[in-house]
Structures are given as structure tokens and as C-alpha cells.
Amino acid sequence: GENVEQHPSTLSVQEGDSAVIKCTYSDSASNYFPWYKQELGKGPQLIIDIRSNVGEKKDQRIAVTLNKTAKHFSLHITETQPEDSAVYFCAAPWGDRSSGGGADGLTFGKGTHLIIQP
Amino acid sequence: GAVVSQHPSRVICKSGTSVKIECRSLDFQATTMFWYRQFPKQSLMLMATSNEGSKATYEQGVEKDKFLINHASLTLSTLTVTSAHPEDSSFYICSAASRPKEGYTFGSGTRLTVV
């Protein structure tokens, strides 16, 4: 199975600054790495994902980087805004037969509570 | 994009009764459905995986006779919590994976409170 470690558990940044959340995974066969944002009382919402054939992906203020050799991937949020405050989870497919989503459940990191200070 | 509808959003039931949670994929066929449980301030934990027309596969420590999963069609999966107890109170979230494999879409979750 997959083991996903996520740091930090809480991150407080000033509005406008950048935030970085890091995750490591254990299964070298994993090749799909999503990031989710969860607001209180709601289900997780996919904000960005990356597959192992690329090292970086960007979508406006959000970017994800992947280092397959080191088995870690990171979420970068620039120009943070109050609405970015939420809990963020990284995840990786469970099992050793992952192929980019579909057949395997996800193992989630423990989450990062991101607080944007006005 | 893909949408998964989960109902009810909240339910309160008496101890010993059963509760059914529905999860529907609205605009795609979900070949695989996943059910997660999330306790307050904790991460999501996978409970079971179900493929359409097959029996669900439960994770270690999850009682299959207590958490009944039905995935009879490509657009509907249900989770029934039988003989609910207060310790079953949690946030239950479904997730669907489509064909072709394009990632996972999550429902909005169901807050179950057993009194």
C-alpha cells in the first residue's frame, strides 16, 4: 500500500505571500498526485493534479512540483488571498497498480490547515 | 466537469437504526466508487472500493456486514450503515472514478450523527 506524509499540519501566512505544502509518498509505482482543498463541512475539491510524466504543472496562482526520484511533491500557492484559507490534502493512489486514477482508492496525507492572515 | 451528487448532506438517526447514503455520478459513468470516512480534524480514510456489478472490497478494520455497499449501476452507489451506534457518527464521503481514467470526483459528504 501507499504511505503519504504531509507537512506542515498548520501553515499561517500573510495575505499576498506564498504558501508551500509538501508531501512524500512511499510507492514508487504511483504516477498520479492530486491536491484537494476542503472547506468546513464540505467534500474535497480537486485544485490541481500532476502525473509522473511531468515535473511541474501550473494553473494561475497554484502550482504543483513532482520529484519522482525523491518521491515527493509540493503545492505552491502564490499571492495568497483570504479565500485560500482551508484544509489542503495531498493524495496518491493506493496499491502498486495505479495507472493515473480509476482503479485504486486514494491514500491521503493528514492535511494542512492553511490560514491566511489579513 | 464531472459531478458527483451525494445525499443526504446531513442525517441524524437513533442508535440501532439503519441509514442509507446515496452517491450518483451525474454526467459520467463511474466504473469504480470509493467510500471514505472522516472524523473531525482528521484525514479521509478509505473504507471500501466497489466496481459496478461486483462485491465491494473493504479495507482492513471495516466491517462489511455493518457498512453495506451496493453499486448496481454505473451511476449509483449506496452505503448503508446498519444498526448504527454513536461511534459511527462521522463524515462519509463518496468518490467516483470514470472510464477512461481521468481522476477522482468527490461528493459533498454526509454528516451522520447517531444519538
Characterise this structure.
- The complex is a heterodimer of chains A (118) and B (115).
- In chain A, 39% of the residues are buried.
- With 118 residues, chain A is an all-beta fold.
- In chain A, 0% of the residues lie in helices and 53% in strands.
- Chain A starts with a strand and ends with a strand.
- Chain A is globular, with a radius of gyration of 14 Å.
- Chain B has no helices and 11 strands.
- In chain B, strands 2, 4, 5, 6, 9, 10 and 11 form a 7-stranded mixed β-sheet that branches. Chain B has a 4-stranded antiparallel β-sheet with strand order 1-3-8-7, with no helix packed on it.
- Chain B is globular.
- The termini of chain B are far apart.
- At the A-B interface, strand 4, strand 5 and strand 10 of A face strand 4, strand 5, strand 9 and strand 10 of B.
| Largest interface by Cβ-Cβ < 8 Å | A-B, 25 and 28 residues
- How much helix is in the residues of chain B? under 10%
Q: What's the helix count of chain A?
A: 0
- Helix count of chain B equals 0
Query: What number is the mean pLDDT of chain B?
Result: 91
Topology:
The complex is a heterodimer of chains A (118) and B (115).
Chain A: E1 4-7, E2 10-14, E3 19-25, E4 32-38, E5 45-51, E6 56-59, E7 62-67, E8 72-77, E9 86-93, E10 106-108, E11 112-117
Parallel strand pairs in A: 2-11
Antiparallel strand pairs in A: 1-3, 3-8, 4-5, 4-9, 6-7, 7-8, 9-10, 9-11
Chain B: E1 4-7, E2 10-13, E3 19-25, E4 30-38, E5 44-51, E6 57-58, E7 67-73, E8 76-81, E9 90-98, E10 104-106, E11 110-114
Parallel strand pairs in B: 2-11
Antiparallel strand pairs in B: 1-3, 3-8, 4-5, 4-9, 5-6, 7-8, 9-10, 9-11
